[in-house]
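writing this on my phone so excuse typos. first protein, seq and then structure
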Amino acid sequence: MSVTAQDVKALRERTGAGMMECKKALVEADGDIEKAIEALRVKGAAKAEKRGERAATEGTVQSYIHSNGKIGVLVEVDCETDFVARNDDFVGFARDLALHIAAAAPVAVDVDGVPVEEVERETRIAEEQFADKPDNIRPNIVKGKIDSWLKEVVLLKQAHVNGEKYEGRTIEEIRAALAAKTGENIVIRRFTRFAVGD
């Protein structure tokens, strides 16, 4: 079956993959666009793993202002190319991320971004809470408590607030799926959450 330029263009717009990759995927899938998308996603997941260290110097800044005007968010999400930066899925992810940050109020993007003094404070509280536990199991209980707390305050560990749309997946799982789909390194660079009175 011959693959037309329109087919390749349509596949490229849906996946963000390169023109030659799209053409090859369509040829291998006998022109079936859904099969070609699936093949590109499988290849994209493998490529995204390799691209994890590549510089993400393009991207978008998206915002969200809550309807009551009392909470607002700015978030920067980066990728490798301006083509992906303009992709509807990429921009939609950044917008949904801004909404999530407004609702979930994370402290940092990743564990490394959590202020050391906050981790130390939570550790002290946990140690006091479980002071009556035996010495041989107390450290594991405290570690479990800290891990649970980090899931609440670290953006990448949080389940997206729109559970229906994202099926309970974490922000990191959603980010990784988008990286696999686009074949690019996707980085949540930073965010700022504003709340009246904070």
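second protein below, same order as before
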Amino acid sequence: MKVLKFESELFTDLQGYQKVIEIIQHSATNEQIIAIIPADNRTENILSTISIKAQNKEEDTNDLLSELETHYLNLARLLIPVQQQSSVLSFLKQRFNELENIFKGIALLNECTKTTTESIHCYGTILSSYLLSAGCKSMVFETKWIDTRELIKVNTGNDLKNIDVTNSFKKIEEIENYHATKILICTAGIAKSQKGTNSSLGKGGADKTASFMATSMNANCLEIWTSSKGMTTADSNMVKNARTIKQMNFEEAMELSHFGSTLFYPPALASIISKELPICIKNINKTEEEGTLISNEKIHSTDSIKGISSLKNIALINVEGSGMIGIPGFSKKLFTALNESEINVILITQSASEHSICVGVHQSASEKSTEVLNKTFQQEIAAGEIKPILLEDELSIVALVGDKMKSHPGISGKMFSALGRNGINIRAIAQGSNEINISAVIKTTEIEKALNVLHEAFFEDTKKEINLFIIGAGNVGKKLIQQIAEQSEKIESFQKIKIKISGICNSRNMLITENGIPISNWQNLLNDGTKADPGIFVSNMTKINLRNSVLVDMTANEFIPTHYEQVLRKSMSVVACNKIAASGNFDEYKLLKDLSVSYNCKFLFETNVGAALPIIGTLNDLIKSGDKINKINAVLSGTLNFVFNNYDGIRSFAQVVKQAQEEGYTEPDPRLDLSGKDVMRKIMILVREAGTKIEMDQITCNSFLPASCMEGTVEDLYVEMEKNEPHFKSLLDEANNNNAKLKFVATFNDGKASVGLQHISQENEMYHLYGKDNIVLFHTERYNEQPLVIKGAGAGADVTASGVFADILRSINN
């Protein structure tokens, strides 16, 4: 024998009834079935509304009841063959006549008593269960409808919501008569009081009925049918990668259900659990799937945790003060006061010093809790022994649940580390001595992010998701997006990283969406976006607070880096192609570096020097491993190397620079390259990364560009360069006479940095440097005889984009 309990949402329309009948039909082929059928929420809400309207003598009371009656009569006509409809329609009309009389009585007395409310509550499940029973009978099934008020008697007491199923239900011997019937369709959540009045079984009423029927009839299993996925590794509404938990024990199920799961009400199933009857939670839309089995059978699983649960609308009540320390009975006084005020405590944590006690309560009870405790400890507060009660609301609980956590060291550390890396602050922590649950209290605004972060951390077969917010969609920005489009599938497959572009901002428009921007159509969508405002863009990025968020600055804009601090303080990483932050004021640079460490995120700018060449990364590795940089020689401008490699005196210097600009090697204003300022920034970044404090005015620049070239517009620059062609030709001739090449070299030696044009002889590593290549020579304590050389393309949209792409992937791999 099997008991099937169905969720109320299935009985709102014809399709729901048909699905339930199909499931019952399939299950009844092998064994006897008891189906527990609740009222649908719509019906209960309408009946409640009519009760209020009747009490207020509103005119549309009968209209609402007639609409509801028509709804059920139409369902019956669609569900039941015409020749079998008469008795069913008659039953339904009788019930609505009874309801009409009840509502007339309410209007006449201008009062709706508790007994009357309980009676009205019974009709929802009576209507849905009887209609379903008739539907089963019409399919030639041996079916009996049971009004459980005839079977279940309760001691009403003062509060029906807290009925103890095991102690309060009285078994009736006549139930044995039902063993011969193939299908039993039962009402749910209703009973008779000892005085003979109708009673609601309160919260979890359908589960209480299912528990009673399963234990009374000696069923071998309880199936709970729902339209959701069943018990999942996390709330599937917030975690897209959540998966169904195939098997768990009763203790794990109880822990998960107490924290947010609405699939069953734990106290109602106490008798089933005590008898160790298996519970199976199944999806009505995927009947072929096994669902979740809850039993005490040995589970073969490698997962250290079974699921991640959550509970919203929590408040923390903090009681603290030196007057608590070593005082016997203080905790008793606190919890007695809350108990007498019927305030349920969800979570408790206390400092080892006994200086503070923190309790978690439902948000709805927060003000009452504060008021009660302030009154209870009035004397202690007045005497300064404890502080006034502190309330902290708008909080939620996130909890790891798993029976195997006790045998896996490091679970707590992994949990708190994952949350910390994503900037999620923990307000309180609680863990039971059985180590099956670790709970943390966080802000409600961060609950979705926390669940996704923890799900990534503990369920390794799911992919990590990285959310990119890209500022700058010029040549390099477009190349980056193109590379992401080309490589994302491969990266997702092999590295288990899902790259999602959640925001793009250019000089005109911006677009942010939590669901991600389709790469195939990003330009059209961005064109339809809102007016660009980098400040608002960054604020919205931090506000939606997606996990593993990265700000990608693909600009040379001086204003964008002013927002890096805001991003890093939210534990979001920054990847910068922009050199302004790393080459600006040293204290500001140092602050950003320190923030990335303090907030467990990344501040990466590999492409600031040498595009995609691993220069900064290699330098960092040398320093971290204990090496010391003694000297740096480098050609750091792909633009200048291109220019001097192609300037042969036949074409003018201005013509070669123009070619470099047309091929995309220069900044929009080539003077930033020609003046040496860009190289100054790059050597300063390397010196800083090597551990030396340095500012721009401490770098010597031996410029080769005449002063007149630095004035006016870009067009004026080309005019002045043509005028000064003899100057540039003389520089070339002098190098040729010395059998050398002209290279613009950056040097760091003896704590001093300089940049300038040099003659490079054939034996020098920098002599054979062609095209737009860069080269860096690190002379260190370990590389003292031969320098460590890094050489390759140092300019170009493709290589720069690839360097940024690599930094993006580094940002998620801590």
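The first strand starts at residue 2 and ends at 6. thats all i got for now
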